[in-house]
Amino acid sequence: MSTSSPRIIVVDPQQKLYHLVRAALELMERHPRLIETYSSDDALLELRAIPPDLLITSQTLLEPSSGTILALMAKREMAALPVIVVGEENDPVLDEETIAQSPFQYLRRPIAPEAFIRSLRIALDGPEAAPREAAPEEIVPVPPIEYSGAIQRILFDLMRNVNAMAVILADRNGKVLGYDGAAGYVDRDLIAAALASGFSSLIKMLPTLGEQPRVLSYYDADRTTLFGLSLGLHHFVILVFDRRAPSAALGNVKRFGATAINELLELVGEV
């Protein structure tokens, strides 16, 4: 069923899954036709109108039925339809036996980008497209960080010192933990999800790089310029500049960014 332009129905009343799916498929170099719906009824109407290649639903929906029930209903309509159910951190936990016997893939946030992309490959291309080997970043949990107090102050000062439009703190699963400045003018979730794949690979590279590598990534473009700074192995900071950053931006980010990261590591520990 492999296709470069899959038709995918995304069901999520909170509108979080759409950006995650789009970012992952862009990394896979696919050009999907995404149909965003917010309820089981709308999803089933879309499914019956034009058969999709994949259905992705959040575990909790607004109506009494859940994403798992929708998955079963969709499988009754189309037995061969791949379905992925994504649970949030506060959703009821499905036991291992239920997951093993379910006719759908089940993922739970926070999700490592590699794990989500692997699930998409299995759904769209078949199990043989994604052989199972547990990667280190899928096993090691992400230490929690709260975007408040001293952490927020350090990042806000960094944003001002380098004259950035916005600053975003995210973890290696692509989850946005907090932000300041004019971050509402950019797609924060999409940026974090796209950059996460690079920073999450740091765990794999430790034997080559050594402990606590410091990574700076740079994306220069006409509409937006991005700098990414690793914060330990599990988090990273994104500095957003409107349009092309001034010539002094790279030097300022290196200078003030290194100081800010050191201060943050003193607070959160060498994680």
From TrEMBL:
Name of the protein this chain belongs to: Response regulatory domain-containing protein
SUPFAM superfamilies referenced in this protein's UniProt entry, alphabetically: CheY-like (SSF52172), Roadblock/LC7 domain (SSF103196)
Matches recorded under InterPro entries: CheY-like_superfamily, Sig_transdc_resp-reg_receiver
Transmembrane residue ranges: none
Source species taxonomy: Bacteria, Bacillati, Chloroflexota, Candidatus Thermofontia, Candidatus Thermofonsia Clade 1
Record-level GO BP terms: phosphorelay signal transduction system
Gene3D superfamilies in UniProt: 3.40.50.2300, Dynein light chain 2a, cytoplasmic
Domain Response regulatory per the UniProt entry, residue ranges: 7-124
Superkingdom to which the source organism belongs: Bacteria
Organism: Candidatus Thermofonsia Clade 1 bacterium
